[in-house]
């Protein structure tokens, strides 16, 4: 019984430590592989649309800019609107 509670304590402590270091590493402003960037962070001139030039100024995690841009630009007019941007779902694992 004593052994068991010691083990649980160690487990709790290490889990707490992991959670803490995770929180610390994700609190540095730059997200290594977090979610997609905000629309406004890509729309650098703030006109409510993302041109390819604005889009290509941003780093993307994978793929090339043209492919990803075309993928988001669902009506193919060369401009990403906020609704196109928000309705685009990047493929990512859901647990
Ligand atoms: Ca713009
Ligand atoms: Ca469009």
Q: In what range is the share of β-strand residues?
A: 5-15%
The count of helical stretches stands at 5
Radius of gyration: 21 Å
CATH architecture of the domain at 39-89: Orthogonal Bundle
Would you state the CATH class of the domain at 39-89? Mainly Alpha
- Arithmetic mean of pLDDT: 81
Could you describe the largest sheet, including whether it forms a barrel? 2 strands, antiparallel
Q: How widely separated are the two ends?
A: 35 Å
- Could you name the CATH topology of the domain at 39-89? Recoverin, domain 1
- Largest sheet, order of strands side by side? 1-2
Order of helices and strands: HHEHHEH
Give the number of DSSP strands.
2
Low-confidence stretches: none
Q: Please identify which CATH superfamily of the domain at 39-89 we are dealing with.
A: EF-hand
Helix content: 40-55%
Ligands bound here?
A: calcium ion
Structural class: mainly alpha
Shape: elongated
